[in-house]
Specification:
By secondary structure, the chain is an alpha/beta fold. 58% of the residues lie in helices and 9% in strands. The protein is built from 16 helices and eight strands. Strand 6 and strand 7 form a beta hairpin.
């Protein structure tokens, strides 16, 4: 019962953590069949929570590295949540032969109609790159299907996790479920040669998983693609003769175009990358978000101004009462400056403790000073005002830089006008590159 009690809270926490959270392809996942969910692994705990919270069917059991099970408290919690320890070859003192117990438990779960989730890259690493998959997921699925005499109906489902900025609060994420693969279709090959069949199935899974994520063959282009997505990703127009694609397809198209021009016109890529980097650095110096000066964004009107003034006192109340637990996770994450795959995990985990504890302390103080009724009302107001302050920042204050062109000191007005003009020039030049890329026959773009 524990997962089913916890995950409504987890879904709410994920909704708060991400500005946009999209889940696609759930209708592709077959109902009533044992599943092996195979996902990429760019962000340690967040990947687990996203797959667990939004996968259809029964709550999946997760395979986790044995180092997570060394602490008794962690072991108790992970076991109650269905965790299965797996020994990895890179773990200190690893004896991979001990994985026979893991294989038996995992196969038994599938034969009983349950679901598993694996991250077969073998480790978590932030970045826009899917590393080669290990064959463990395929081996488990094929072994369970074989032991059931081909009657288990095990399906492997690739799950792509794509973050716009892994580790950043209020960023975007896309959870994409792909076409399932029936393990029974590979059973004859498995009985003929276990290792070869598992490897072939793993290669197919890898191809499908790459199609569900934002994958770069050249990791040296990652910074340029991230900058391109920040400045151009939301505003790109696919062309007059092209239907507007989904956000993930847009990101993938921009990555493919970057690869193409890196091969055919590297000077253009270097020049554009330098301009994008300089533009984003100037925005950071002014403490502005990349979308603050978005092209074509309408200027705030009187209604916007009236709503801003009306909600300002409540938003200020929410800020003052939520600032401390909001800052604590950000400070804690600094200890992991060299491990970007840990940033989101640390922020979410620390925030999940800091906010309730802080609210409880404030309510306790209110109860001591004013009694139970006031403490209850005050406690309810804390999270609600915090959410309103978040809305105020994202939907009202983030358009404030446009107002500052008229109200800010002269130097800042000049900088804002200069940056807005530079963004317009960047968009115009990127549109020309887009048109040049789309004019090519599809076979020449790869």
């Amino acid at each position: 019962m524990l997962p089913y009690l916890l995950f409504p809270l987890v879904r709410f926490a994920l909704w708060v953590f991400f500005r946009k959270l999209e889940v696609r392809g759930r209708d592709l996942v077959p109902a009533g069949r044992p599943l092996v969910l195979v996902a990429n692994h760019p962000s340690v705990m967040l990947d687990v929570l996203l797959v667990a919270a939004f996968s259809p069917g029964p709550f999946p059991r997760f395979l986790g590295k044995t180092t997570l099970f060394k602490n008794r408290f962690y072991t108790f919690c992970l076991r109650r949540l269905g965790g299965i320890p797996v020994v990895r070859s890179q773990d200190p003192g690893a004896r991979v032969g001990r994985n026979q117990d893991m294989l038996r438990e995992a196969c038994q779960t599938l034969k009983q109609g349950g679901s598993l989730c694996l991250f077969p890259e073998g480790l978590s690493e932030a970045g826009l790159r899917l590393r080669p998959l290990k064959p463990g997921a395929a081996r488990i699925a094929l072994r369970a299907e074989d032991e059931a005499g081909g009657q288990a109906g095990v399906c492997l489902v690739p799950v792509g996790l794509t973050y716009s900025a892994a580790g950043m609060f209020r960023s975007e994420v896309i959870v994409q479920f792909g076409e399932p693969l029936a393990a029974g279709d590979f059973l004859d090959a498995y009985r003929a040669n276990h290792g070869q069949a598992a490897q072939e199935l793993t290669e197919i899974l890898c191809q499908r998983l790459r199609a569900l994520t934002l994958h770069l063959d050249d990791p040296d282009l990652e910074e340029s693609v991230q900058d391109l997505l920040a400045v151009y990703g939301e505003d790109v127009n696919p062309g007059p003769d092209t239907a507007m694609p989904h956000r993930l397809e847009t990101w993938q198209g921009l990555a493919q175009a970057t690869h193409f021009f890196a091969r055919t016109d590297p000077d253009a890529v270097r020049g554009m990358a330098g301009r994008l980097r300089q533009y984003l650095e100037q925005l950071r110096q002014l403490n502005l978000e990349p979308r603050a000066l978005a092209v074509g964004r309408p200027a705030p009107g009187l209604g916007h101004l009236a709503l801003s003034l009306l909600l300002a006192p409540v938003a200020l109340y929410g800020l003052l009462n939520n600032a401390l637990p909001y800052v604590i996770p950000r400070l804690w994450a600094r200890a992991y400056a060299d491990e970007p795959e840990m940033w989101a995990t640390v922020k979410l985990a620390v925030g999940a403790v800091a906010f309730p504890l802080y609210y409880a302390l404030r309510m306790g103080l209110a109860y001591y000073l004013w009694g139970g009724a006031v403490a209850l009302e005050y406690g309810v107001s804390l999270p609600l005002s915090g959410l309103l302050a978040l809305y105020y920042k994202e939907h009202l204050l983030e358009r404030w830089p446009l107002w500052q062109r008229l109200t800010a000191p002269r130097q800042r007005r000049f900088l804002l006008q200069t940056l807005a003009a530079e963004r317009a020039r960047l968009h115009a030049d990127l549109d020309l590159l887009r048109d040049r890329y789309l004019a090519l026959p599809p076979e020449e773009r790869t």
